[in-house]
Amino acid sequence: MAQMWKPQRVAVVGAGALGSLLGGLLGEGGLDVTLIDVWKEHIEKIKANKGLRITGHGGDRTVKVSATTRPEEAGKMDVVIIQTKMRHMTDGAQQALPLLTERSVVVSFSNGLGKEEILTSVIGGGRVLGGTTAQGAGVVEPGVIRNAGDLPSTIGELDGTMSDRVRAIAETFTKAGLKTTASDNVRLAIWKKLMANVGINPMSALCNFRVGELFDVPEVKAVILKALEEGEKVANAEGLPLRAQETVEVLLQITGKGGTGSNRSGMLVDVMAKRKTEIDFINGAIVRLGKKHGIPTPVNETLVAAVKGLERDFN
Q1: Would you please indicate which residues are annotated as catalytic (active-site) residues?
Q2: Is 185 strand, coil or helix?
Q3: Among 49, 157, 255, 274, which residue has the least CB neighbours within 10 Å?
């Protein structure tokens, strides 16, 4: 009997906070990990420190990983995790091409809807898996990231089948310290995370709230719940049996003990850095699909407009 394939070499294209955390945890667990990013100062600090510094959950430590700004230097990989922002996902996919063999697998745990379609358009569908994660992280300084908690990740085939490669990756990642579930309905998992971001991201960015503060103000909580109710209707029209209450439960998991409540959302971090956000791929996705199905989404439309007002002069 042939031995089941097990991934050993992993690259992360887009080694910001979350990309660095994912790669760092896998490297700490014994996999051969290379972080790839255009942020030269971050990459050079990792090299100088002989590894990535991780603080926060799990304690302060230096994790051995390789790092480069040049994908072609990294060699061929078993798994490539693409963690660029959604607006840079096409660039990330193109950077991944030199890393791939016929058997390589590509997955993204980035927020937002449509990343798998972008990756497939560049890389080809046979290599692309769906992915999502509840993990959270922040950049402390170049070469140093903070782990905000210990929450699960999910991967799966885009066609809803359960494959040996998905099982192998989930098992290997989990053993390495990144708890990963193999799913036969990853699209539903992606939508559940999308809904969490629909609730968390815009209001945290607009109010300058950390994730765990979002339910502290009744009026803010009410707007979040209304945005989720609109998302539920859109998801149902897309054929997904999603309920807003399920998202509230996810939010409580993220913000509760062991979660990432002390973390700033990615959208808030972007606003603080005066960068364009991913609002078009989160609440904007609800608005677009709402129009497709003739479903009104006034709360999400308002949140999109408010965030775009904030980022008017951003890069």
Answers
A1: 193
A2: coil
A3: 274
* Residue 241 CB burial class (10 angstroms; 0-12, 13-18, ≥19): exposed
Report the phi/psi class of residue 254: left, alpha or beta, with left for phi > 0 and alpha for psi in -120 to 50. Answer: alpha
Helix axes of 218-237 and 298-310: crossing angle, nearest 10 degrees:
120
CATH fold group of domain 9-184: Rossmann fold (3.40.50)
Integer Cα distance of 154 and 133 in angstroms = 6
Are the beta carbons of 275 and 307 closer than 8 angstroms? no
What 3-state DSSP class applies to 7?
A: coil
pLDDT tens, residue by residue, 54-88: 999 999 999 999 999 999 999 999 999 999 999 89
In CATH, what is the architecture of 188-310?
Answer: Orthogonal Bundle (1.10)
